[in-house]
Structures are given as structure tokens and as C-alpha cells.
Design a protein that fits this description.
5 domains; alpha+beta; hydrolase; six-stranded antiparallel beta sheet; transcription regulation; PAS-like_dom_sf; 777 residues; Beta-Lactamase; 38% helix
């Protein structure tokens, strides 16, 4: 080992020895103090002078075979009658010879009284060290922290023991609102026990994943919360016994005497001539009605009420009593309804305990006047000064209430009022008007004649007309200006003013108001822009619908006369949608092919508008060209599906396609997702069985099934789109069953038959309807 290492080791040993000597000296001092107190008690009980009483104490200890320090602690405990005595009653028979109290366990008394003797130094750190060693460690605790409470909710770490290095530095100061367990105990003014430490609450000695238990106890002096004692266990704990809980409460109160302000809490500022102390001068200097309250303590130093020690000359009792009557009364006696039911007493008690001031703009105060409860509303303020409490209240009269309502209305409406005295030049603004102009309170108001210096230059003409109307023509007037504030903000302001004239008509003053209408202005601008865009959109939509309708009507007129093709008589009807913007893609075709056969088609393109109309034109013309090949309807629909899928902009459609041969009177037909045709034969109507076939454009390669229908003379066949039968509340099958009885009715003319079907249609979708009817022979 080198010479430097030997010197460092020797220095460390010296420091450790000094620390042990200091601890021993501290313990010896605590023991001597405790024995001295016990000796003084024996002197007071008539056991001679100090020397005789000390020898008597030694004789009692020898006879009882007890350590001298333990017997001394028991005697002090029995004579004190304080919280420590309640927490650890006298145990030894030797002490009972002197004091004769009740029995209890022996260990607690010595620990508690030794810790109390250590607190006589007034050093918070020494007290916590002694308390942890003498009283808390036997309970299993490993650390303790003593916090000093600061008005406003902050805490300062006054002393600590048992925490790792650096923890005290990190938690030296706890700002208000952190929400630690100690701050919660101050706010609730009661001991808190956490057998399983919550992980979501920050605190000294807490780390992620740590467990343990905590006892957090307010440290009080004469009902005032001076701070908090926080005791830490390393593991979770079951609830403390009643004896252990009382010991911790007593230790917390011992700690309170070492915290800043405890001497003031114990001081007695009153004198026989001045029961309220120096607060009288402060109360008299206040403009509001003020009472000075002094706490009333029981034999355990707990606050049970407050005495009205003084009331200033401006004090106004809500029951109309003279202030001399109230002085000397207790708060709960003078105002039982307000104090208990209104919560005033709880607020006073909290302020006295924590030192945190309380303010309420509107509080209901009640009092009994001849057994009749009388309630008033007042602005209330409560503050602690030393051990006393100042309570101020300002009763709200009708004028005050209306003024407050007016102020709130002006604030909500962003209105500021003014009055300008033309004779004296004095200008009066309310507080809201300073805020509108962006000026600090107390700055010089802006005269009306200088308003143009604060407005946009383009508004100078409008301001001039406004001033001429008010100042020279003596008429009420209004105008709107753009106010340019010093902070660069531009506000849209509306000004309303009226002149005040004397009996001779001379102008005396101008009264008026400024209102910030910026939000309304920009809303109107946005609405105007929206209306312009909406009108433009409506115009474009109307134009598209008009073009779609013209395109549709050019190809399919709504009605046409029946025509003869080969041995078929063909009639068609087209009923457009009731709403113009619902122009759809319904279409039909009946054409004689080069092969002398007749092509019959009805289709429905999905959607509405110009897209549906142009899609209909594409499919109709494509099918006409494909039919010229002489192919059957299934093949034609297969080719048309290819056109819809590959050669259009995602057009989908349903269709039914038939090719009629006049020589054989056979109709070959196929469908692509379309409702079935209806055949009327011999006065009976029925739907044709459906061949397989998907709607057009759904998949690239679709196959379609073809059916053959032999026709007879007099048969009528109807092909239609879903606008004829579709309902929102019923299925297509149900609607078809309702259509068949109507279709079976006999009419001489084919066109009349189609009109009958359209007239009695129960469709409710307002969709286009396309209907084609053919009759054989």
C-alpha cells in the first residue's frame, strides 16, 4: 500500500470515529436531558431537592431492576399527559409508585421519550436522526423526511434520514401542484397511510418498480400545519395498529416544534387592552369590512372554533347586529348557518392550518333574523397572519350586482363604453375599452377627434362623416372602422355614439360604445366566399344536368307512337326522374336488323348525371353495331360486357336483350343482372324464368345464358327498368308480384297498356323508368 493510500485510509478512519463519538455524545445528551426531566418531576412531587430526587430515582431503578433511563422515560411519560403519553402509557411498577397510571408495554415509552428529549435541541436534522434511531427503526421504518409547508402549496425538505446519497438534493424543494403524498396530507389535513406505495405518485425515495409503505402525517402546532413527517418502510405493510398510529402522530407533532414559524404559532400576540394584537391596525386600514379571528383550542391543542376578536368600523353584519355585539362571540355562534352549512368555517379552518389564502367572488352568507333565515351574497377573502385569521366580506347590493352583470355582458360582447365631456375635455373609458385598443390600464384614452390616427387610412372619410353627425349635427350615429393597434393587430370595430345636450341645445358630452366585430366580419367574408363558390358549383351542376337531359331526350323521347316491325307491334315509354339532377342512364332500343330479325333491348347504366347519360350512349350504339353481325343475344351481351369493362370509364349496367325471328315467331333472349320480362298470354301475366348472367362491366370475361321463347298470336311482352317496380321498403320479388295483376288487365291498345303500367306503378325511388312492349300479330 502506498503512502497516499495509507493516509487516505487513516483519514477515513478518523472521520468514522468522529461520527461515532458525535452520535454517542448526542445520545448521552438525550439521556441526560431525559433523566434531568424525571428528576425535576420527583422534586415537584416532594422527594427533596435535586440530589435527593436523583438518588431516589436510582433507588427506584435498582429496586425495579430497570435501567435508569427506562424508568426516567416512564416517569416523564406518566407526568406529561400529552400525545406521547396517549401513544405509549406508563409501563413499570416503579413509575406507578410515583404516578399510578394505567399499564402498557415497556419499550415504547423509552423510545418515545428519548426521541422527545432529542427534539429539545430545536435542530430539525438532529430530531429526525434521533427519531429514526430511537422510535421509527423499532417499527421497521428505514427512512424519514420532514417537510416544511410554505403557503401556496410548496414544500421544503427541512430534514431527512435513511435516504440514498443525492436524494435530498433532488427533493430539496417541491413546487405547488406536483401532487406528492406530503402535499396531499397538507391539503387534506389528516394522516395518510399507504400500505402499498402507489407507483403513479412522485415522491422522495421512489424509483420505477420500487415497493414499500408510507405514513404521511401533518405536523401541527396549535392547529396550524407547520409541515409533514413522511415515514418510509422498504416493503409493503399491513395497516398500523392503533398504538403505532398514535405514536407516529405524536412524533409528527414533536417535529412541528423544530420547523420555521412554530414559535410564532405558540406566541400570544394579544394583550388585555388589545385582544386582537397588532392586526387591529391592519384591519382598520382595509377598505373592506374585516374581522380578526383567533383560534379556540381544546386541551389537545386542536382548533374547535374561532373567536371574533375584532371587527373594523366598516364591518357590516348580514343580520344587522352592531359590531360591538359580535366582538367576543365565536364564529359558529355568531353565524351558525353560514359557518356550518355554507362551508365558511371549513375555509377558515383550512386557511388557519395551511396558510394558503382563500378568495371567492360570490359566496352565499346566511343568518337568522328573528328565526327567519336571511341570505346575502358577498365577495369573501380569508388570510392567515401569525396565529390569527383575517376574514373580509363585501356584501353585494343591487347596484353592485347590476354593475357586475353589465361588466360580464360587455366582456362577452367585446364592448367597451366611453363618455367624453366636451366642456372639460375629460374622457372616461371602462376597462374593456382599453383591452379593445390594446392599451394598458391607466393610459390616456383616445379622443374621438384623434380616432383617425388609430384607424386604417381608408376609413378617414367614414370617421369624418361620423364625427360631423355627432359633434356638429347633434345626431346619434354609428360607423365601422379598422382599428390598427400598436401591437400590430387589426380589429374591425363598430362605433355607436350619441350627443348629450343641455337645455339650450349646447353639446355637453358624447356617450357611446366600441364593439369588436372582427369575428362577425370574417364570418361574413367566409360566408360570402362560400356562397360564391356554392353558386358557381350549382351553376356547373345545372349545366351538366341540362346537357345530360338534352342528350337523353335526343336519343329517347319520353313518348312515341307505336310502330310495326315485321309482324310485331312495338310501343315504348320513357318516364324521367322527378328530380332534374337525377338524370339517369336508362335506355331502350327496337330496331329491324339486316337479317330481317328484330332487336329488342332495355338497359340501365348505374349512376346519374352526365356520366350515366354518356355511358348509356356508348352501350346503346355499341350494341347496335354488334347486332349487325347476326349473332345471338348471349353473344351480344358478352361482347358488350367487354366494351363496358375495357373501353369505358368503369361503366356498369344491367340489360335484357332479345332477338325475335318473325318466320318462326321465336324470341331468343338473355339478361345481364336485369329484372325478368313479363309475358301476358290469354289474360294471364307471369315473369319469364331467368337465365344466368352478371351485370355488364363487373368482370372482364363474363358468360351469359340464352333462353328461347316461342311466341303466339296476341302475346304481349313487356321489358322494363327497375324504376318501374323498385321500392325502398320491399324486395324486387315482392314488387313484381304486385305488378303482375296490373299487367294482366286487358286493354285494346298496346300504348294504353304501357300507360296503365306506369300509372299504377308503386315505385318510390324517383328513378328513371324505361318500358318497352311488343305484341305479336
Amino acid at each position: 500500500m502506498s503512502g497516499d493510500e495509507q493516509r487516505v485510509e487513516a483519514l477515513a478512519g478518523t472521520v468514522e470515529q468522529l461520527r461515532r463519538d458525535l452520535d454517542l455524545a448526542q445520545q448521552s445528551a438525550d439521556a441526560r436531558a431525559l433523566i434531568g426531566i424525571a428528576t425535576g418531576i420527583l422534586v415537584e412531587r416532594g422527594h427533596g431537592g435535586p440530589m435527593e430526587s436523583f438518588r431516589h430515582l436510582e433507588e427506584l431503578a435498582q429496586a425495579a431492576r430497570l435501567p435508569l433511563l427506562e424508568l426516567a422515560a416512564d416517569i416523564v411519560n406518566g407526568a406529561a399527559g400529552d400525545d406521547v403519553a396517549a401513544a405509549a402509557p406508563v409501563a413499570t411498577a416503579a413509575a406507578r409508585q410515583v404516578l399510578a397510571p394505567e399499564q402498557s408495554g415497556p419499550g415504547e415509552v423509552l423510545r418515545m421519550r428519548t426521541a422527545e428529549a432529542g427534539s429539545l435541541t430545536g435542530d430539525a436534522q438532529a430530531v429526525v436522526d434521533s427519531m429514526l434511531d430511537q422510535a421509527l427503526a423499532p417499527l421497521g421504518a428505514k427512512a424519514a423526511a420532514l417537510w416544511a409547508a410554505i403557503p401556496g402549496g410548496a414544500l421544503v425538505l427541512a430534514a431527512h434520514a435513511g435516504f440514498v446519497h443525492g436524494e435530498a438534493q433532488r427533493w430539496h424543494y417541491v413546487p405547488p401542484g406536483v401532487g406528492t403524498l406530503a402535499q396531499r396530507a397538507v391539503a387534506e389535513r389528516r394522516p395518510l397511510w399507504f400500505g402499498d406505495l402507489p407507483t403513479d405518485v412522485p415522491g422522495i425515495g421512489q424509483r420505477r418498480g420500487t415497493t414499500g409503505a408510507r405514513a404521511v402525517l401533518p405536523a401541527e402546532v396549535s392547529g396550524r400545519v407547520m409541515g409533514v413527517l413522511e415515514v418510509c418502510w422498504p416493503h409493503t405493510q399491513p395497516p398500523l395498529s392503533g398504538m403505532a398510529a398514535r405514536q407516529l402522530d405524536a412524533l409528527a407533532d414533536l417535529c412541528a416544534h423544530t420547523l420555521p414559524g412554530s414559535e410564532a404559532a405558540l406566541a400570544e400576540p394579544r394583550t388585555p387592552d388589545n385582544p386582537a394584537g397588532p392586526l387591529v391596525e391592519l384591519a382598520d386600514s382595509l377598505l373592506d369590512p374585516t374581522m380578526v379571528l383567533r383560534p379556540v383550542l381544546d386541551d389537545r391543542d386542536q382548533v374547535t372554533d374561532f373567536t371574533i376578536a375584532y371587527a373594523n368600523e366598516r364591518f357590516s353584519d348580514i343580520a344587522g347586529r352592531a359590531r360591538s355585539t359580535l366582538i367576543g362571540m365565536r364564529l359558529l355562534e355568531a353565524y351558525p348557518l353560514t359557518a356550518r352549512e355554507g362551508g365558511l368555517y371549513e375555509y377558515v379552518l383550512r386557511v388557519h392550518a395551511t396558510g394558503e389564502a382563500f378568495h371567492a367572488e360570490r359566496m352565499a352568507l346566511s343568518a337568522l333574523v328573528g328565526e327567519v333565515p336571511l341570505t346575502s351574497v358577498a365577495a369573501v377573502g380569508i388570510g392567515r397572519y401569525g396565529d390569527s385569521v383575517l376574514l373580509t366580506w363585501r356584501l353585494e347590493d343591487e347596484a353592485t350586482r347590476l354593475a357586475a352583470l353589465l361588466q360580464h355582458a360587455q366582456r362577452l360582447g367585446r364592448i367597451g363604453g366611453f363618455e367624453e365631456n366636451v366642456v372639460s375635455g375629460e374622457i372616461t373609458w371602462n376597462s374593456q375599452l382599453f383591452a379593445l385598443f390594446g392599451l394598458p390600464q391607466g393610459s390616456s384614452p383616445v379622443p374621438l377627434e384623434r380616432l383617425h390616427h388609430h384607424a386604417h387610412p381608408d376609413d378617414a372619410v367614414a370617421i369624418g362623416r361620423f364625427l360631423r353627425a355627432v359633434l356638429y349635427h347633434r345626431h346619434a350615429a354609428s360607423t365601422a372602422v379598422r382599428l390598427q393597434r400598436a401591437d400590430g393587430v387589426v380589429r374591425h370595430i363598430r362605433i355607436v355614439a350619441e350627443p348629450v345636450t343641455g337645455p339650450d341645445g349646447a353639446l355637453l358630452a358624447v356617450r357611446g360604445a366600441y364593439q369588436d366585430v372582427s369575428a362577425q366580419h370574417w364570418t361574413e367574408v367566409a360566408l360570402a366566399a362560400t356562397r360564391d363558390r356554392l353558386a358557381d358549383s350549382e351553376q356547373r351542376v345545372a349545366e351538366r344536368n341540362r346537357l345530360a337531359l338534352q342528350l337523353q331526350q335526343a336519343i329517347m323521347p319520353p313518348t312515341s307512337a307505336p310502330v310495326d316491325l315485321a309482324d310485331l307491334r312495338v310501343a315504348v315509354r320513357y318516364r324521367p326522374a322527378e328530380e332534374g339532377h337525377l338524370v339517369g342512364g336508362d335506355w331502350y332500343d327496337a330496331v329491324l336488323l339486316p337479317t330481317k330479325k328484330v332487336l329488342l333491348v332495355v338497359g340501365d347504366v348505374a349512376g346519374h348525371g352526365i356520366e350515366a347519360a354518356t355511358g348509356m350512349v356508348v352501350l346503346r350504339n355499341a350494341l347496335r353495331g354488334l347486332a349487325a353481325t347476326g349473332s345471338g343475344p348471349a353473344q351480344l351481351l358478352g361482347w358488350l360486357n367487354t366494351v363496358a369493362h375495357h373501353l369505358t370509364e368503369h361503366v356498369t349496367a344491367t340489360a335484357v336483350c332479345g332477338v325475335y325471328d318473325p318466320e318462326t315467331r321465336v324470341l331468343r333472349w338473355a339478361r345481364a343482372g336485369h329484372p325478368p320480362p313479363v309475358l301476358v298470354r290469354d289474360g294471364e301475366a307471369f315473369t319469364l324464368p331467368l337465365p344466368r348472367g352478371l351485370l355488364l362491366g363487373a368482370i372482364p370475361d363474363a358468360e351469359y345464358e340464352e333462353h328461347r321463347l316461342p311466341m303466339e298470336l296476341g302475346d304481349r311482352l313487356f321489358m322494363y327498368t327497375d324504376g318501374l317496380i323498385e321500392r325502398r321498403d320491399r324486395s324486387v320479388e315482392h314488387s313484381l308480384q304486385q305488378l303482375l295483376p296490373i299487367a294482366g288487365q286487358s286493354t285494346r291498345d298496346l300504348g294504353e297498356h304501357l300507360d296503365l303500367l306506369l300509372t299504377h306503378s308503386r315505385s318510390d325511388t324517383d328513378d328513371d323508368t324505361c318500358l318497352i312492349g311488343v305484341q305479336v300479330g
